[in-house]
Amino acid sequence: MGNTWSHNHCYYCSHYFYQNSQNRFWTIADVCAPSLILAQAIGRWGNFINQEAHGGPTNLPWGIMVNGVKVHPTFLYESIWNFLVFLFLLWYGKNKQKVKGEVFLLYLSLYSFIRFFIEGLRTDSLMFGPIRVAQLVSVIGVVIPMYIFYRIRKNIKNKF
Questions:
Q1: Terminal-to-terminal C-alpha distance of the chain
Q2: What is the pLDDT of residues 79-101, one digit of tens each?
Q3: Residue 129: left (phi > 0), alpha (psi -120 to 50), or beta?
Q4: Could you give the CA distance from residue 139 to residue 129 in angstroms, rounded to a whole number?
Q5: How far apart are CA 106 and CA 37, in angstroms?
Q6: d(CA 120, CA 134)
Q7: Which of 8, 34, 131, 132 is deepest in the core (most CB within 10 A)?
C-alpha cells in the first residue's frame, strides 16, 4: 500500500512540476526521491499487519511470531533502513549535491542495496533456478545508478 502511494505521489509531484515549471527529469526525481523512500518505510508496516513478507525462523529477541513460529521481521529491517536513507537523502540534497540527479540515483542504489540482503532472509522469494530474482534485480539496481552517479561526478571534475 505504501509503495502504491509513493509511486502515485511521485507521479503527481512530477506531473505538477513538469506542468508548472521548466524543471527537468533529474530535478523532479531528486525532489520525489526522499518522499518515495519515506513512503516505502511506512508502507512496510503493512507487511507486519498482514503477516507477510517475513524472513525465516530466528531465535533473535526481536523476532516476531507468525503462525506460531518466531521469524525475522524483515519489514522492520527495511523500514528502519529506509527511514535512515530518507534522512540521509535530505541531508545530502541540502549539503553535498553538486549535480541534478544525484539524490535520485542514491535513492535507487541505497534502496536496492538493502533489498539484496532482505531478500536473502525472506522465505517467499521468486526463484529463477538457484537465483532469487529480487536479488538479481537489486544488484542491477545498485550497479547502474552508481555507474551513472560516478559518470556524472567525473564529468563535473573534468569541467573544473
A1: 45
A2: 999 999 999 999 999 999 888 89
A3: left
A4: 17
A5: 11
A6: 9
A7: 34
Cβ of 147: how many Cβ atoms within 10 Å? 12
Which amino acid does the sequence have at 102?
E
Q: What is the mean pLDDT of the chain?
A: 88
| Segment 2-50, tens digit of pLDDT | 555 555 666 666 666 666 555 578 888 999 999 999 999 999 999 999 9
Cα separation values, 34 from 28, 49, 86, 101, Å: 11, 24, 5, 12
Return the bridge partners of 57, or none.
Answer: 71
Instruction: Give dist(CA 54, CA 81) in Å, integer.
Output: 16
Residues in the chain, how many?
A: 160
What lies within 8 Å, CB to CB, of 51 at 6+ separation is: 66, 67
